[in-house]
Known about the structure:
Blueprint: H1 2-21, H2 26-50
Amino acid sequence: MTKLLGFTGSLVGSYAGWYALAAFGMFAGIMGSIIGGGVGLYYGRQYGRRYE
């Protein structure tokens, strides 16, 4: 369950980062997607560990 929540968090965080920064250009959108994916992965796995 931890891996599934990590993947879901990464997907949601990546999309949110892209959506938030894509208006500033392609490079900003890609960087926002990378950072958002990492943050989503971290918090998704933490959430999975807490409720496992």
